[in-house]
Amino acid sequence: MASIAVLAGCGAEGAGGGAPASVPPAAKAPPSEFTVGCPAFGAPAAKGAGGAKNGALPAVSLECLGSEGDPITLNGTPPGPTVINLWASWCAPCRAEMPIIEKLAQQGHGTVQVLGIATGDARSAATAFAVEFGMTFPSVLDPKNKVVGAQGLQGLPATLFVDGSGDVVYVHPLPYKSYDELASDVAEHLKVTL
3-state class of 115 per DSSP? Predict the structure, then answer.
């Protein structure tokens, strides 16, 4: 079994100082609500019993984190090749990795879907995290760690690669340290070149 590396520390917060006399439009405060809706997954995938590391996703229904969208049943067929990132607001390595996952969501738009799973988090903490990082991809809530348990994962973050038929074809149980590393895994495991 792979060992889990833990990254120390969080990114530095902005240094204090006086507010500027006028705030340019681009510097206005971020929204206080996460509104990205969740995609519809199709009928349950025909393969696997769910929960296997390589096989179908677990048959769990999770609420959409965004203010719009119905719950998602994970073992349904995704709307194309999908990268599922399990993260939490309290997880330092997740904070370090999130800009890389966000870049994938922006670069892969139309060729690969990105779905986040806020793991072991309250809705308010997960929403604040999504707003802080300017996430443009949907996330669902898994406050009881159902996906981590079903996939046999030892920690966060973790990234699942799901093909267009709903099969988990690869599990990356460590944080990504670069976009190139993530893009390479997308190309290798999902056959999508970014």
Answer: strand
Strand (E) positions, the chain?
55-56, 61-62, 72-73, 82-87, 113-119, 139-142, 158-162, 167-172
Q: Determine which helix (DSSP H) or strand (DSSP E) holds 183, and give its type and residue range.
A: helix 179-190
CA distance 77 to 63: 17
- The token pair at 87 is 């993260």
pLDDT in tens, 148-157: 999 999 999 9
- Global pTM reads 0.79
Each residue's pLDDT tens digit, 51-98: 444 678 888 999 999 866 788 888 888 888 999 999 999 999 999 999
Omega cis (within 30) before 44: no
Q: What is the 3-state secondary structure of 148-180?
A: HHHHCCCCCCEEEEECCCCEEEEEECCCCCCHH
* Count of CB atoms situated within 10 Å of the CB of 168: 24
